[in-house]
Design brief:
The complex is a heterodimer of chains A (about 600) and B (about 160). Chain A is an alpha+beta fold and about 600 residues long. Chain A has 16 helices and 24 strands. In chain A, strands 9, 11, 12, 15, 18, 19, 20, 21 and 22 form a nine-stranded mixed beta sheet that branches. In chain A, strands 13-14-24 form a three-stranded antiparallel beta sheet, with no helix packed on it. In chain B, the strands form two sheets. In chain B, strands 3-2-5-6 form a four-stranded antiparallel beta sheet, with no helix packed on it. A three-stranded mixed beta sheet of chain B has the order 4-1-7, with no helix packed on it. Chain B has a domain of about 70 residues: Sandwich (Immunoglobulin-like). Classes of the chains: A alpha+beta (about 600), B mainly beta (about 160). Strand 22 of chain A pairs parallel with strand 6 of chain B, so a sheet runs across the interface.
Chain lengths: ~600, ~160
């Protein structure tokens, strides 16, 4: 009975976008326009509602008009709104809520491609306005880094550290009951620092390096405003439907033969939205949030005037992708005496998206990515060896783009990475690490993936070597000089979302929807058996025609000019007697990734 | 067993209706027209009410069987019962991580899903059959007779298939 009432209430009270008027700010005054009037006025509708998700998580229609539900969309929105966990379950249980009605945990998943909703940011602004007034931020700003050697001896660093401790506590990141000893960089403080980095989208390890210390030196509202800028940027970029973000510099000739410089359309869209909505300072943003109750953000859309897009924009664009592998080292990590081989790279892998316009190849974006390298691999004898898991080169295509992709862990994946501790109804126990396989933001394929394949000729199927271009929670692998994948080309999750959303909106494609899988397999870890069950492969889009991709060989450094086929033993491991096993040759075993391994190495 | 908060949160997160989000709409044509005249501007709208009549989703039926007899099924600390076992849960109320235990067999961790009806038959392995399981390790060489690590092969990877 209760459930029935609940459903009726929910379905009757939820408004839809179509009936909401659009927020427009004119001469400093807020107005509401009917949607057609806003559009007729040349405004683009920027979705500021809590229902926003990137285009890849929208729900499409089959060719016969059937709606193809996108199951990960609900999870994405629940995570963004601090409502649910990765399983779609409430962050706060009914019991906890009854005990402490004000308790509101946070997900802080921006680093993983799930930015907070405007409602979450609103609450953050209002809460932070009165927090941490006793922190002397100037003492934190007096340092650029804090050395990793504790206890600190430099009085300036010590004073900064004391204020950082105070800040993390009053910001609610260092719990009052946390076991932290003042002046120590202990586990409790390290955890608080990581939460701070996650909250502020700082791609770094748990250390007081430059970017982290700079963010700690800003006031809470200043950091909240930076988060708002990032969130509005994603919304504006999606609304303006653009990609160029200033990572490439180029000129091109327009239809009149005039030279034009490539614009940073993402920055233009972001600035236009922030300025026109009066959100371009922390104080203004706070006023905006005070003016708008939380309920507004259930459906809020704003009208923003964007500059017209460049003339090479079209519903179907002649896009292509080039992946440069950069410096490539095939030499094993260790020589025959167990001494490390030099693996220094100077030229790192990159992914460039181009559009062909009047016989010109215009580079729209160029982002850092990864290539494969020497990785741990589980052999048939149950032991781990090193194996070179390369990124193959040559012409490829993207035919399939999968949102909320599932990575089917091959048998060569070290078993230790396939289990994790989970609290199951109040009891911590080991379970299959579904975070790793997905769908989810920690999936080895991130939140979205495109499959690199060689198109089949004369009716033959495509050849798939298991290499994907995908978002990744392993963000440090894209910035670390020693970072490698298992062959895939990783992208920072929010950029992967932007890229594949853009491609889907500028190429002819078909929505194929959720791909049921029905996969299961068992494995032994210690003295328990784990059964992995995967009901879906993710939500699939089919590009037709496929999008061309070229993978360049890069610069081969080191002694070996070709990758090794076999295993290399790991130093210090006692292997069983007999010949070394031969690695399997399936596409999944050749190139596939575990995300967590890098944290352990 | 029913967790209304779970259902409510998921529905709220999902928007509870088939939206016409900007993200799912086709790209909007852009023009350079001026903002509409003041007459087009309206005061803030009250929250609109959309009446959608939709029946609540039916619960899902879940079933667990095993290849051994009378296997105990645990959900966290709670003993749910023994195989064969059936239960009903609210649809989309999250995955259920189960642990199956039987004397003389390896415990098995498995999962049921709640987005649709789900029934599984879990394969139980006798303790004596350890080496038949994927991931079981062969014993390393005893130290006295340990062989040095085999030499590294340097065969090139075969060229990609066309």
């Amino acid at each position: 009975m209760f459930r029935t009432l609940l459903f009726v209430l929910l379905f009757t009270l939820r408004p839809s976008h179509a009936q909401e008027r659009v927020l427009v700010i004119k001469d400093g005054q807020e107005q509401r326009l009917e949607e057609p009037a806003a559009r007729a006025a040349g405004l683009t509708l920027v979705d500021l509602s809590d229902r926003f998700s990137p285009y890849i998580f929208s729900e499409g229609q089959a060719e016969n008009g059937t709606l193809l539900g996108n199951r990960y969309r609900a999870i994405f929105l629940g995570l963004a709104g601090d409502l649910t966990d990765a399983d779609g379950q409430p962050l706060v249980s009914e019991k906890q809520r009854a005990k402490d009605p004000s308790s509101q945990p946070h997900n802080y998943l921006e680093l993983y491609g799930i930015p907070p909703t405007l409602s979450v940011l609103r609450a953050r602004f209002l809460e932070d306005e009165s927090r941490c007034s006793d922190v002397d931020f100037s003492k934190i700003r007096a340092v650029t880094i804090i050395p990793s050697k504790f206890p600190l001896k430099d009085p300036v660093a010590l004073a900064a550290f004391e204020e950082i401790e105070k800040r993390l506590r009053c910001e609610g990141l260092l719990a009052p009951r946390a076991r932290h000893l003042p002046g120590r960089f202990d586990d409790a403080l390290r955890e608080a620092l990581v939460r701070f980095q996650h909250k502020n989208k700082i791609y770094d390890g748990a250390a007081f390096r430059k970017e982290t210390v700079a963010a700690l030196g800003r006031t809470l509202l200043e950091n909240d405003h930076q988060a708002l800028v990032r969130v509005v940027t994603e919304r504006a970029v999606a609304a303006a439907d653009v990609l160029e973000d200033g990572t490439t510099e180029a000129t091109y000739l327009d239809a009149h033969g005039q030279k034009q410089s490539l614009r940073n359309l993402a920055a233009e869209a972001s600035q236009a939205a922030l300025q026109q909505l009066g959100l371009d300072s922390p104080a203004l943003a706070l006023t905006f949030f005070k003016r708008h109750p939380a309920a507004d953000f259930a459906t809020l859309r704003a009208g923003v005037r964007f500059a017209p897009p460049p003339e090479y924009y079209a519903p179907h664009m002649d896009l292509s992708v080039e992946i440069d592998r950069g410096d490539v080292i095939y030499d094993p990590l260790f020589d025959e005496h167990g001494k490390p081989n030099n693996q220094t790279r100077h030229h790192f892998p990159s992914l460039t998206v181009r559009v062909r316009y009047h016989d010109q190849q215009i580079p729209l974006v160029r982002w850092r990515t990864t290539i494969g390298g020497w990785r741990s691999d589980l052999a048939s004898n149950g032991y781990e060896y090193f194996r070179y898991k390369g990124s193959d080169v040559g012409p490829r295509v993207w035919r399939n783009i999968v949102a909320g992709p599932v990575w089917i862990a091959p048998n060569s994946t070290p078993v230790r990475t396939l289990v994790k501790v989970k609290n199951v109804r109040g009891m911590n126990q080991l379970v299959v690490n579904y975070d790793e396989v997905g769908p989810g933001y920690l999936s080895a394929y991130g939140l979205v993936a495109a499959y690199n394949v060689v198109p089949g000729k004369e009716g033959k199927p495509d050849w798939d070597n298991g290499v994907r271009v995908h978002g990744s929670s392993e963000y440090r692998s894209m910035f670390n000089p020693d970072g490698y994948s298992h062959g895939c080309h990783r992208l920072v999750n929010h950029l992967a979302e932007r890229l594949f959303s853009f491609i889907l909106r500028h190429r002819t494609m078909r929505v194929e929807g959720d791909q049921p899988l029905g996969f299961s397999r068992q494995f032994l870890w210690k003295d328990d058996v784990y059964e992995m069950r995967l009901p879906t492969r993710g939500y699939r889009y089919l590009l037709d025609p496929p999008l061309p991709v070229t993978v360049l060989e890069g610069n081969i450094l080191g002694k070996l000019k070709k990758p090794m086929a076999g295993y290399a033993p790991k130093p210090g491991v006692d292997y069983p007697p007999g010949p070394m096993p031969v690695p399997p040759d399936s596409p999944e075993a050749r190139a596939a990734g575990t995300a967590r391994e890098e944290e352990e190495e | 067993m029913i967790r209304p908060a779970t259902v409510a949160l998921l529905l709220a997160a999902a928007g509870c209706h088939r939206s016409t989000d900007a993200a799912s709409a086709p790209p909007t044509p852009r023009t350079d027209a001026a903002i509409a005249p003041a007459s087009a501007a309206l005061p803030p709208a009250p929250a609109p009410v959309v009446v959608v009549t939709k029946a609540p989703l039916p619960p899902v039926h879940l079933g667990v069987r095993a290849t051994a007899r009378r296997v105990k099924i645990f959900w966290g600390k709670k003993l749910l019962g023994a195989t064969p076992f059936a239960l009903e849960r609210p649809r989309d109320s999250g995955p259920i991580d189960l642990l199956l235990r039987a004397e003389g067999y390896f415990p098995v961790h498995t999962r049921l899903y709640t987005h649709k009806n789900d029934a599984i038959t879990v394969s139980m392995t006798k303790l004596a059959d350890r080496m038949t399981l994927f991931g079981a390790k062969k014993e390393p060489a005893p130290p006295a007779t340990a062989t040095p690590p085999p030499a590294i092969e340097t065969q090139p990877v075969s060229a990609p298939k066309p």
